[in-house]
Write a structure and sequence with these properties.
Helix content: 40-55%
Order of helices and strands: HHEHEHHHEHEEH
Strand order of the largest sheet: 2-3-1-4-5
Shape: globular
Largest sheet: 5 strands, parallel
Number of helices: 8
Structural class: alpha/beta
Number of strands: 5
Distance between the termini: 20 Å
Length: 205
């Protein structure tokens, strides 16, 4: 896979938008490939990729008495399978329940976004792009957009390939960030090189 130019000067050769890019937000329905798209794009952009739910998952694991070194993606392959580790809930259900019952009432609806702002600001200081996957609530996204600024933010709204629909629902919303001045593109994440090609088509031009 071709690599994205690392410096602002090199990015300028591709046009104004990539030169100014600081933040990529990836939203989408369950199993649309948000983490996979983020990882793929991070390799290409030499960016820092993390999920907005990382902190939530750590705290949920702790709440259920799992080991502190439990990997964040430990349950990724069986997110929708009832699990004894979560007292019979699916991991997805456990994360949502902990968010709605503990995180939001105690810390506010925008807490996870506010928590991520420091990382985005640190990346910006070294001209490193931040890629945040799994965004789905406007209250969480606003701090991120304000930190990077709307003109330096790009939103990828993933959708399922034609004919596919797992039928799984969660509590996240269908984000529309265009009223904030954030450039948005709807993409399908099927294969990494094809996804990068589509990203370049909609983001660079």
């Amino acid at each position: 896979m071709a690599e994205f130019p690392a410096t602002l000067e090199d990015r300028a050769k591709l046009g104004r938008f990539p030169q100014e890019l600081a933040l990529v937000l990836i939203s989408g329905p369950p199993r649309s490939g948000k983490n996979r798209a983020g990882s793929c794009l991070a390799r290409y952009l030499r960016a820092d990729h993390f999920a907005l739910s990382d902190h939530l998952k750590r705290q949920t694991h702790k709440h259920y008495g799992l080991a502190e070194d439990t990997p964040i993606l430990q349950f990724e392959s069986r997110k929708d399978t009832p699990s004894r580790e979560f007292d019979g809930l699916t991991p997805r259900e456990a994360y949502i329940d902990y968010s709605e019952r503990v995180i939001k009432p105690q810390f506010g609806t925008g807490f996870l976004g506010e928590l991520a702002c420091k990382r985005i600001e640190e990346n910006s200081l070294v001209e490193r792009i931040s890629i945040v996957s799994g965004v789905g609530f406007l209250d969480e996204v606003l701090p991120l957009v304000n930190s990077a600024s709307p003109r330096r933010t790009f939103h990828i709204a993933l959708e399922y390939p034609a004919g596919e629909c797992p039928g799984i629902r969660d509590s996240r919303e269908c984000l529309d960030l265009t009223p904030l001045g954030v450039k948005t593109a709807t993409l399908v994440n099927e294969e990494c090189d094809a996804f990068i090609h589509e990203f370049n088509r909609v983001a660079v031009n």
